[in-house]
Amino acid sequence: MIDRRYSRQVIYENIGEGGQQRLLDATVAxxxxxxxxxxxxxxxxxxxxxxxxxxxxxxxxxxxxxxxTLYTEDDVREEKPKAMAAFDHLSRVNSTIIxxxxxxxxxxxxxxxLISGCDLVLDCTDNFExxxxxxxxxxxxxxxxxxxxxxxxxxxxxxxxxxxxPCFLCFTGESSSRESGQTCSTVGVLNMATGIASSMQTAEAxxxxxxxxxxxxxxxxxxxxxxxxxxxxxxxxPECPVCVKHEYAALGRxxxxxxxxxxxxxxxxxxxxxxxxxxxxKLASSLAAHxxxxxxxxxxxxxxxxxxxxxxxxxxxxxGNAKDASHAKSIxxxxxxx
Length: 338
Fold this sequence. Notes:
This protein has helices at 7-10, 16-24, 35-47, 73-78, 82-91, 111-115, 128-141, 168-172, 184-187, 191-210, 280-287, 325-335; strands at 27-31, 51-56, 98-103, 120-123, 145-151, 154-160, 219-223, 228-232, 258-261, 267-271, 292-295, 299-303, 308-312, 317-320. It is an alpha/beta fold. It has an 8-stranded mixed beta sheet, sandwiched between helices. The protein has a 6-stranded antiparallel beta sheet with strand order 9-10-14-13-12-11, with helices on one face. Strand 7 (219-223) and strand 8 (228-232) form a beta hairpin. Helix 3 (35-47) packs parallel to helix 10 (191-210). The longest helix has 20 residues, at 191-210. It is globular. The mean pLDDT is 92.
């Protein structure tokens, strides 16, 4: 018997009991638990999607609270990883579904494992490279996904179904391999835009998971400030490397350590060659002579007057106040070890 918490959804004629059961049987990966991901996760949790994988690499900061709707000032004070904070809050919303927090940086080495067994992937990220990985992995694994983005007062979303629709590269082209330079840290973003984008994304997710014939086949675009709303046809590129030729350049990048500047912050992420289960207690003991160390079950923070290290269990670290990527790697090597 279907839980009565879904009663208002079940009586909606386009879902019914059959559609609700399909939602309960579904598994969805949400990649990115920021402004888009928090709204999308909240919507699907309350709608009764049976298993949600909540994937994010970052922790909660004060500037997130303007638009990342699941988090609180307590999460900021604790510098809680977003995946865990989302899990904690959503667990109090719906205890009958499976919520799986994943604290990870999505890369060629792990994306296929992260989305394996999923019926749908939601893109709630903020950069082209991860979206390109999602596009290639979903094409190879024949998993539908929904692109979503927002910046300033604009937002857009598009359903991408392997074998049926144009893919992300058909829409953006290979020339877009680098971002335009505009980010929410440089030009800002309205929480109304992120909320609309995520609501449109999850409406399409529910349609797809319930088998609705009304699934949208266009790119939705809206500017909430300029009062513009458009549904734009996107054509399949007959020479597309991904959805036509099934060539996966992003997935084929060699594994290895790498570093990434985090948008709008004086921090650099360092990812080691190999994933590991860091012994925080042992490492804290060795670091204590060099600065202040605190840790919990999922993150260790080391601070001294020159820099900070926020280290996750898998060995990934976020280095604050490093001069550049090379300096960040040097700090990591000296204090954590590659």
